[in-house]
Design a protein that fits this description.
The complex is a heterodimer of chains A (356) and B (226).
Chain A (H helix, E strand, L loop, with lengths): L1 H9 L1 H39 L3 E5 L13 H5 L1 E3 L2 E13 L11 E8 L17 E5 L1 H4 L7 E4 L5 E8 L3 E2 L2 E7 H9 L10 E5 L2 E3 L6 E5 H6 L4 H33 L1 H9 L4 H34 L9 H28 L9
Parallel strand pairs in A: 4-9, 5-7
Antiparallel strand pairs in A: 1-10, 1-12, 2-11, 3-4, 3-6, 3-10, 5-9, 6-7, 8-9
Chain B lengths: L2 E14 L2 E14 L2 E6 L6 H8 L7 E6 L2 E2 L5 H11 E5 L10 H12 L5 H10 L15 H14 L4 E5 L7 H17 L3 E5 L11 E6 L2 E5 L3
Parallel strand pairs in B: 3-8, 3-9, 6-7, 7-8
Antiparallel strand pairs in B: 1-2, 1-4, 4-5, 9-10
Helix pairs in contact in B: 4-5, 5-6
Classes of the chains: A alpha+beta (356), B alpha/beta (226).
Amino acid sequence: MFLALKELKYSKLKFALIIVVIVLVSYLVYFLTSLAYGLASSYTNAIEKWGSDEIIMTIDANDSIMMSFMDQDDYDSVTTTGSKTKLGLFPAVINNPTADDILGSRIDVFFFGIDDDSFIKPNQSVTLTGNKVIADDSLQKEGYKVGDIFGISGSTQTYEIIGFSKKTTYQTAPVIYMSLESWQQYRYNTQTPPDLYSGIIVRGESTIDSSNKSLLIYKTDDYISTLPGYTAQVLTFTTMIVFLIIIVAFVLGIFIYVLTIQKTSMFGVMKAQGISNGYIGGSVVLQTFLLVLIGIILGGILTLLTGIFLGDVIPFAVNVLFYVVITAAFFLFAFLGALFSVSAVLKIDPLKAIGG
Amino acid sequence: MKPLIEMIGVTKDFLQGDNIIRALKETNFTAYEGELIAIIGPSGSGKSTFLTILGGLQKPTTGRVLLNGKPFSELDVKEKSKIRLDNIGFILQASNLIPFLTIKEQMVLYNKITKTKVNQSWMNELFLKLDVEKLKNKYPNSLSGGERQRAAIAKALYHQPSVIFADEPTASLDTKKAYEVVKLLAKETKEQKKATIMVTHDERMLEFCDRVYVITDGILTERPKV
């Protein structure tokens, strides 16, 4: 402790430069993590909100819920240990008919058609009837209020917002909840649509009657990974983050190693005097630990500041668990880097300290 | 007089290619308390072999080293290291000071490593004796060569070892400073009943030594004082 701290104090500039590198890299890693998590969340927020265990679609849909068509017989053929509910899901483009620039007011959204008593209804205080809908609160940022009307592209139909829901985005687009009947009218563009929907959301475990061979059960997580681009995006971010952590471990390991090699003769003298490998090695490890600690605290503060100032512009979300794992990884890899130097300390021969 | 460090029938062989080279012929040597002993000899004569075996940094091929009457050379590396920390003080040519510690912190380091209390009064006494009181908050590289060696002596004496090894302690000093340093070393050796073994090239320093040994080709012989 003593040696490690005194050296940090003595060689301030040298260590400050190393800390700057750690700050920058840890900032990048934390920031990317928040961004990756934020993006991934905006893909799946609406699904997470269901609190579901399973999703059932048709086999023919080939993982794409928008291409899944199910009827009442399909619904009845599913038995669950918990509860089940129908979901109609289709993208839509909405606009504000009262805006000066109607084209400029277009927003890509997803229409979710649900029964009014469905457990996936996000706002229980309102009733979904006719063309009354619950909209994701990101529409509030676009200026919509309760009671506002919006239209849709390709139809003269309008809808009235009767409530807002929090954190309900699907594939980064806001979700609009409506009654299953309204959804069917939109989906099939007729006032007398067929009674079809897209999938069944299940809490608990479900079994399908053996006579129905057209359905497939997805675990919710498996379903999420089939969302277009989701897996590729998560994988890309994860790879970047893992590589950054490994790179910082190498950079730090090399820095510490070079510093250790510079001190070879001093460590030789110390060993000749009877100072143990344990004390010298411990001091190298502790120094590394302190550098990483200071670096990632500053990097973390920068990340949070960025989140505060840019949180509305970018999909920035904090996940404490991810931060903990990444921080632990930083320490682990930095420690491995330091061990490299410790092994160099062990090899220093105190004989060299005494010339003759 | 009490013998502090003894070498009994020690030899040291090195393997060079296929040949065994005897770097140190059978050697018997005893340093008593209060003695400043000089070891001289050309480089490659076996001086450093002698000193490193005495200090427990390498094992003798035959024979043994006793420190304070107890077996030393037979111990394992870790135990020897521990004993060196408490019982041996080093003053080295390039100085044994750590560049990023102030002179005072150099002393405190020993207490930190051994988890003991700082002996403030003894430290102050040493600083006064060695005239480094004013330098105690300075770093080694801001001191002159003479100041650095005086501080090194303070460090070697601080933990009250029984034996002090000084390896060319005057190498980088001019004659006046070198005299000062060796005189101080001789004085402290006497006062504190240490045995100090000093390897030197510098014939001028021998007048302060109690005994002078010469090593040539691995043979240690005492040179009668003139």
